[in-house]
Amino acid sequence: HGKENVDSRHNRGRGGETTRFHTVNVAQPVRFSRKCPTGWHHYEGTASCYRVYLNGENYWDAVQTCQRVNGSLATFTADQELRFILAQEWDLEEKTFVRKDQRRFWVGYQYVITSRNHTLEGHWEVAYKGSSEVFLPPDPIFGTAMSENENVLCAQLQCFHFPTLRHHGLHSWYAENCYEKSSFLCKRSQTCVDIKDNIVDEGYYFTPKGNDPCLSCTCHNGEPEMCVAALCERPQGCQQYRKDPKECCKFTCLDP
User: Fold this and answer.
1) What percent of the chain has pLDDT above 90?
2) Which residue of 95, 111, 209, 249 has the lowest C-beta tally within 10 Å?
3) What's a GO cellular component annotated to this UniProt protein (predicted)?
4) Environment class of residue 254 by beta-carbon count within 10 Å: exposed (0-12), middle (13-18) or buried (19+)?
């Protein structure tokens, strides 16, 4: 990270004159906290990013929206991941399709009905074949907009807006008509994000999101690796200055 104060080191040069060296940035260990684009929440346990979309879409449109951002409707690998999701505050606005204190999101499961005798019987499946996810929901609450002709229902995860309920992990699973409109939860792999919030492809050089615009790293599995840092000389003829937070070795002189 950049060092704000200017180091001055004095040495005796030839002829007895004093030479002065200045460095503005001093290379130090760097921690990278941003591995997701703006608006996404990062979970270290799965190296994944999550985002709730508030615009109401039916299940199939929600699937396409998630695919356009290189993700899919969220499925979960373990209870810990689900608890992480339930504990998040998703910047939810007044737009909602259910009660204000409750939120329902489409997620990546479908309930396949196998019998309609006295009670509905069926089982959950991951919506995308070949998925490695192992967590399947418990028995669902059946939605009110069911059609007698539908043999496949789509999963909605209900969580609660109030912090106390969120942090206790209270939630419900609904099997709902797939053509109902709802908010939805997308999931994608963590990625490299540069200092200007652009997504960086695997293997490319970039400056990571952080406090040092003079770092250059290689993107590998969503992480910045093999980073090198530039050290900047302070601007000549300027006593007071401000470093540009986004451009390496660019300064604004603050002298009168």
Assistant:
1) 15
2) 95
3) membrane
4) exposed
Question: What is the C-alpha separation between 137 and 197, in angstroms, rounded?
Answer: 35
- The pLDDT tens digits of the residues spanning 15-47 come to 555 444 444 444 444 555 567 888 889 898 888
Q: Spell 14-29 as b/e; 16+ CB within 10 A means b.
A: eeeeeeeeeebbebee
CATH code of the domain containing 76:
3.10.100.10
Q: What is the pLDDT of residue 73?
A: 93
The pLDDT of residue 11 is 41
Which whole number is the average pLDDT over 131-141? Answer: 72
pTM above 0.90, yes or no: no
Indicate if 168 and 230 belong to the same structural domain: no
* Same domain flag for 215 and 105: no
| Domain hosting residue 225, numbered range | 192-253
Structural domain includes residue 119: yes
Tokens 């990270």 sit at which residue? 1
Cα distances from 243 to residues 5, 149, 163, 235, in angstroms, run 11, 65, 40, 10
* 243 shares its domain with 185: no
Q: How far is CA 64 from CA 58, 74, 129, 184, 201, in A?
A: 10, 13, 16, 11, 21
Listed in sequence order, the residues at least 6 apart from 241 whose beta carbon sits closer than 8 Å to its beta carbon are 234, 235, 251, 252, 253, 254, 255
- Structure tokens belonging to residue 68: 């356009």
